[in-house]
Design goal:
The chain is 41% helix and 15% strand. By secondary structure, it is of the alpha/beta class. It has a domain of 132 residues: Aldolase class I (TIM Barrel). It has an 8-stranded parallel β-barrel, surrounded by 5 helices. Helix 1 runs parallel beside helix 11 and helix 7 runs parallel beside helix 8. The longest helix is centred in the last third of the chain and has 19 residues. It binds phosphoenolpyruvate (PEP).
Length: 259
């Protein structure tokens, strides 16, 4: 955790979920009603097909709803793509950009990710910019170099603590059930914090740094208690309301410990 930075617990459903899953969204929306929501933000990024109905389900809930990607242009001949404006039009508040699955499956470069983040900002969305090293890069001790390069390349000049969240997601930890050690997460997050402060000053101090990669109810407290870890980006464990809410719930204890 970072003093004075409000944690964010965010779910990424990836290409999962149909109308049959709306019960889970409803359960999440109801499950986050309560005093903890005054101190911790929650967000769910379902597939685009469920975005509008999800925002409707969350109108009376602090659970925010976002998308998993946007195009870098505002409109035009880009068959199959979704603009940031369209997400905002469905009452989405956030968009994930640069997830490693998009960098790999769709050849997205840092430059494209930065343009997508800019498009998100223009539509008044918060961009969740994902960065992280591959297994080979980790084994070659290149993690911090990769993080520096991706932060520089993917985070636009106009980034503020309000419109930008950084998610550190080691590629080898995503969906694998394996997480880095607490020490490794602490080193990566401290490094990202110092890079952001160097570039953005006070804003960099307050920018939220999420950890993502195999976060589960049983490891969340350990991961979320690490310095400069200001929440989680959760894939698999966000598909079930029970697991998502259990991860959110670890903040009850963590906040109590800081008092
Ligand atoms: C993700 O895809 O952003 C992610 C962190 O997935 P998982 O939690 O399943 O590792």
């Amino acid at each position: 955790m970072t003093p004075d930075v409000r944690p964010l617990v965010a779910g990424n459903w990836k290409m999962n979920g149909t109308r049959q899953s709306l019960g889970e969204i409803k359960a999440m929306a109801e499950g986050v009603l309560g005093p903890l929501s005054e101190q911790v933000d929650t967000l769910l990024c379902p597939p685009m097909t469920l975005l509008y109905v999800a925002t409707a389900l969350c109108t009376d809930s602090p659970l925010m709803v976002g998308a998993q990607d946007c195009h870098q242009k505002t409109c035009g001949a880009h068959t199959g793509d979704i603009s940031a404006e369209m997400i905002a039009d469905c009452f989405g508040t956030h968009v994930i950009v640069g997830h490693s699955e998009r960098r790999t499956d769709h050849g997205e470069t840092d430059h494209i990710v930065r343009d997508k983040a800019c498009a998100a900002h223009e539509a008044e969305l918060t961009a969740i910019i994902c960065i992280g090293e591959t297994e080979n890069q980790r084994d070659a001790y290149e993690t911090l170099d990769v993080l520096r390069r991706q932060l520089l390349g993917s985070v636009p000049e106009g980034a503020t603590a309000e419109n930008t969240v950084i998610a550190y997601e080691p590629v080898w930890a995503i969906g694998s059930g394996v997480t880095p050690t607490s020490e490794d997460v602490a080193v990566a997050h401290a490094f990202m914090r110092s890079e952001l402060i160097r570039r953005f000053g006070e804003e960099g101090k307050m920018m939220r740094l999420l950890y993502g990669g195999s976060v589960k109810p049983d490891n969340a407290a350990k991961l979320m208690s690490i310095d400069n870890v200001d929440g989680a980006l959760i894939g698999g464990a966000s598909l079930k309301a029970e697991d998502f809410l259990a991860i959110y719930g670890v903040y009850e204890g963590l906040i109590a410990e800081t008092l």
